[in-house]
Design goal:
The complex is a heterodimer of chains A (308) and B (312).
Chain A lengths: L9 H23 L1 H4 L31 H38 L1 H14 L4 H27 L9 H30 L3 H8 L4 H13 L1 H23 L11 H9 L5 H7 L1 H29 L3
Chain B lengths: L1 H28 L4 H6 L5 H11 L5 H13 L14 H36 L5 H14 L2 H15 L17 H27 L2 H8 L4 H13 L3 H14 L2 H7 L4 H10 L3 H29 L1 H8 L1
Helix pairs in contact in B: 1-14, 5-6, 5-8, 5-11, 5-14, 6-8, 7-8, 7-12, 8-10, 9-10, 11-14, 13-14, 14-15
Classes of the chains: A mainly alpha (308), B mainly alpha (312).
Chain lengths: 308, 312
């Protein structure tokens, strides 16, 4: 847990953290400003110029359809950014925190219900649950969005890739809320018996007000830790889902889609690594460093919040 | 203690029913009509309707589920849609065995690398070795398998030519070494972390200091006093490992071309062959639930602190 605790050189630790933060920020900025940074359209094929090596025109070369890999990577990062943050906010933060608050504060039947629900969710082999959900809900979501398009008289929603965000987000939802919920619930259980809460209850403050203004601020700090670990995990599950072909759908690029495209679902990864490492390594290294940075930051915050 | 055990034992069947019903439900709302898939898209609506009746698809979901589970207990998970008239259990069985073997050896490797390293790291926590081990375990843990697997193949199979690059000739063959390493090395990181922190907790206990001042040999203190107690919390980690036994090797199997469940379940997704997927998740979740129950009970038995505190 407190792994960097024993790094005697405080400065080294600070440096490591700042490198991680710098890396995360630059990745997310690349994702946000993808339209400006990308040099080509991510989907324009050029069959006269396939599998080319890096050049000034194509910074990382082109793939087997002649698409510019650098631009696909930049847009892929954007997909990752959108998916991680939407899943984090809906799953970990909103669902996890509110369920933890409700269960921990009110106890009783509703608490038991929430805990049992969590047990059911965590009784599945998780990647397979995500795969099953992603495979079964996609058609439903597509149908729903088509209906929405008809009603609002607009088009293009289906093709904009928004479905992919929904599918990946909803599929990883059952896994993302439980950890945070347990964490928050545990904290609430400690706080709810304290005098100041009892005092507010005695004064007749509404439960809603107590939860939001008195309990929440005192239990929220561990969430930062679980969120920083969660971001890495969500990014990874997007990569795995897309790699299997049920997450983000090509031609829309994401880090997983690029890895899948380049290696034909893993089967040719050795020859690609040998002959065109510039195609395979960048998405893998980005996802690796992203997860690593978030884990190191999570450990650091964990150590600051719960010193032993 | 007895009440706790009884509660757990009562809850487990309910949990199994809820989770299997959920999987069954997801499988039944999955796109594609099984009867239509079986007959092909040229079949007349009457034929499809007739087959639907024969397959019991027009019955309410509840009775379908009960029928399915009655057969599932006997090891019969229905018929596959895509491979015509083959039992799901016949298709899954051999592949599942390969995956289980691979993951079992991977997890054993992870435990045997992780526990000693975690212990060693905690014992040396005042030196530079500890942060080094911990940081490198973090780095290794985060490496995507997309990178480690081809790198290992490239180095050991292509350049050194020690082991075959892909394929599977059974558990005790050279072809199992690389995939097992690919699963085991990142897997060990989690054991390093937990073993390290639980050892650190024990090392500073009073009874360990007493043992030292009694003049006991270091070896005896390390094994009998520290490692034994530090291993207790690790038991709960085994549940995590058992979950990994079903899912840990998906990407590894694809990259190494191992005939396990990865290829099978992906094909099942593309061909909308949901009986296979459903059967697989059901087997996985039931064994996970049962394993977690056993681990919980074992933990309460092994650790007297829990046993006694539950009594009071």
């Amino acid at each position: 847990m407190n792994l960097i605790k024993n790094l005697k050189q405080k400065i080294l630790q600070q440096k490591l953290i700042s490198i991680c933060i710098f890396f995360i920020f630059s990745i997310y900025i690349v994702g946000i400003f993808a339209p400006i940074i990308a040099t080509h359209d991510y989907n324009t094929t050029d069959l006269y110029n396939t599998q080319s090596s890096p050049s000034r025109e194509n910074l990382l070369g082109t793939d087997k359809l002649g698409r510019d890999i650098f631009s696909r990577l930049v847009w892929g990062i954007q997909t990752t950014v959108i998916i991680t943050f939407s899943t984090l906010i809906t799953g970990t933060l909103f669902l996890g925190v509110s369920m933890g608050l409700i269960g921990g504060y009110f106890r009783g039947k509703i608490d038991i219900l929430i805990m049992r629900l969590g047990e059911v969710v965590s009784s599945f082999p998780e990647i397979f649950l995500i795969i099953l959900l992603a495979a079964t809900i996609r058609p439903k979501i597509v149908e729903l969005i088509y209906r929405l398009e008809d009603k609002l008289n607009i088009s293009g929603l289906v093709n904009s890739g928004i479905i992919d965000y929904f599918v990946v987000g909803i599929a990883s939802l059952p896994l993302s809320w439980f950890g945070t919920m347990r964490l928050i619930r545990g904290q609430v259980l400690l706080v709810r018996k304290l005098e100041y809460i009892q005092a507010s209850q005695a004064m007749g403050t509404s439960n809603f007000r107590i939860i939001f203004f008195h309990v929440l601020p005192n239990v929220i700090s561990p969430v930062i830790v679980s969120a920083s670990f969660g971001i890495g995990a969500i990014a990874l599950s997007e990569v795995i889902l897309s790699f299997f072909g049920i997450g983000v759908q090509p031609p829309k690029p994401s880090l997983g889609v690029i890895i899948n495209d380049v290696t034909s679902r893993g089967s040719t990864s050795v020859s690609v690594l040998r002959n065109h490492p510039e195609q395979l390594l960048p998405p893998i290294i980005i996802i690796w460093l992203l997860i690593l940075s978030w884990n190191i930051i999570g450990d650091y915050i964990n150590e600051k919040i719960n010193p032993r | 203690m007895l009440i706790y055990v009884a509660k757990r034992l009562l809850w487990v069947p309910i949990l199994i029913i809820i989770s299997t019903f959920f999987v069954f439900f997801m499988g039944s709302i999955a796109p594609g009509d099984p009867a239509e898939l079986k007959l092909g898209n040229k079949a007349t609506p009457e034929r499809i309707e007739k087959l639907r009746n024969e397959m019991g698809l027009n019955e309410p979901l509840g009775s379908q589920y009960i029928k399915y589970m009655k057969n599932a207990i006997k090891g019969d998970f229905g018929e596959s849609y895509a491979y015509s008239d083959k039992k799901v259990s016949e298709i899954i069985g051999p592949k599942l065995i390969v995956t289980l073997q691979l993951n079992l050896i991977g997890s054993i490797l992870a435990i045997f690398i992780g526990l000693p390293l975690g212990f060693y790291s905690a014992k040396n926590h005042k030196t530079i070795l500890d942060p080094l081990i911990v940081l490198s375990s973090l780095i290794i843990y985060a490496i995507p398998i997309f990178l480690t697997a081809p790198l290992l193949i490239l180095f050991f199979a292509v350049y050194l030519n020690w082991v075959p690059a892909s394929g599977w000739d059974g558990l005790f063959s050279y072809s199992a070494i690389l995939p097992a390493l690919t699963i085991g090395i990142p897997g060990s990181a989690i054991y390093i972390r937990h073993m390290r922190s639980s050892t650190l907790d024990i090392i500073n206990q009073d009874y360990v200091r007493t043992a030292h001042s009694k003049g006991l040999r270091d070896f005896q203190i390390n094994t009998k006093y520290i490692a034994r107690n530090a291993l207790l919390p690790i038991i709960t980690l085994l549940g995590f490992t058992i979950a990994g036994i079903f899912t840990g090797s998906l990407i590894v199997e694809l990259i190494f071309g191992i005939p396990g469940v990865a290829r099978l379940s992906l094909d099942a997704i593309y061909q909308r062959d949901f009986p296979i997927l459903t059967a697989f998740i059901m087997i996985g979740s039931v064994s996970l639930i049962v394993a977690n129950l056993i681990i919980d009970l074992a933990y309460t038995l092994v650790d007297p602190r829990i046993r006694l505190s539950e009594k009071n």
